[in-house]
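Encode chain A's predicted structure.
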Amino acid sequence: MQIRLANGKMMTLSKQDFLTQGGEGRIYVRDAFAYKIYADRTKVLSAQKFYELQKITSPNIVTPTQPIYDIKGNIIGYQMLFVQKAKPLCSIFNLAYKKKHNLTSSVLLKLIIQLKKIVSAVHQQNCLIVDLGAHNFLISSDHTQLYCVDVDSFQTPSFPATALLDSVKDWHRNDDAFSQNSDWFSFAILCVQIMMGIHPYRGKHTHIKSLSARMQQSVSIFDPSVRLPLICPPIEILPISLRTWLESVLQLKKRMAPPETTLTPITTTPSFAPSTKLLSKKRQLTSSHPILGYLFDRSQHYLLTKKHLLGMQQRIPLSCPTPISLICEPKSGRIIVVCHHNEQLFLYDPKCNTLIGEPLPVRDIACFHNQLFVLQHNRLLQINLHLVNNNIIYTTSIQATVLPKASKLFTGCIIQDMFGTKICTPLSPNIPRLPISLPLPKESRIVDATCVQHVAQILYRYKGELYLRRIFLTPDLPHHTYPNIETENTNFIITDAGVGIWLRCSGDLEIFSTVDIHSPRRNLLSVLCGDEQLQYSNGQVLYTNTKELTHIEMQT
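Encoded structure for chain A:
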């Protein structure tokens, strides 16, 4: 596609530049900029709205930089800065994600303060965000910066907003008009989601069940009759000034901007007591440092931390950059540490305290089932270890050619966005590596995924709402969908007997058949904390959390 920018520069956008397709059009990326091309030319930004949006100058708001024209001179889209390596904001709602990345209350409060500055910057230019939900925000890979995107839906002085999800809608706003107060109401919802991982109008109530009914009747988590899921931290984790304001807005129907006072975090340990009646547990290994990776080989369990490789009877200090996972050389059984630092792959041999070969430039890494895959430019590579003269070397083998910007590695698979169609290639051992078109909406955006054997669990966002879909990668692609969820884990295992076990973020275990998707599912309620990682090795079901490896068995 040939385009012309407002500065007169001509460009050709190709499939190598394609990033994703949303409800309004396609996004391409070239160097430091993204290019939005509208599918419906009647929805293209007018020159006046473009001018009004450009008045918003916050570095955390991704506003248009210049219009895009086709070769006939028609406006077809706009250019904007591209936020490198950003993730959907909803990723941090998950407790397991928070613990894995050490997102403390202090870190989360800094994000809320930044979010408040973003909203204020929009209001200063007499504009409104209106659709102020997690779906319109990205977070940087180091979790220090928030970015507001899809700003073409903002309300500006000359152009009223039309799009708003019910999940952030202020049902009590006066004369049905949007205002700064309705933005602050939506801001309050997002604050609770960031801090507590739950929508403030969810939780269990005796008779008011639906989200919209709870919002219309102002029955929030601050209502004494609402019971929070056990996985959530207590409300007391919120700083007093913020908590008082949130309760006033969400429960007492007051509409006002948040306080200017400094938000000081309160140190509170969530109280959570999983049921012990349904499981027997046996601790295998413990660590004084957070666990980053796990591997089972030759009847031995191994754990990786930032500082050590731990075995049943060994503790080897590490001296390598940013360790993330473990793999094993198949002939010798020697354990190798996988490191990812400054967009380079390093392989480290702890036995010899040396790096293996040269660093390899990579864009993405996934390690599972003692397999290591990387994305390099437009190629999917598998990294293979070999023992040569008692030394470990690595080689690479090309597994596929992919769209470089529209492909991402997940646990057990690679998924490409092929102009709206999501193509999944399973990478589990002994499974044909054939691309499969996933039964997902074209406008959906994948947040996370796990693929084990012939089963995939996909967490995706569609029209602002979050869904999880379990898909059997068989010819007719049967699937089961969990709609309108707050956040969820995709982590599951499949036993040798063909039984699937899914750890939900609530701490529940769901037991399902991998043969018949319509067979009854069994739920074991609140048996774990929800932040663990399920493992399956040598016929055993295990889990790792931040500090230990534990073997579990179902009680009958």
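Residues 105-124 form the longest helix (20 residues).
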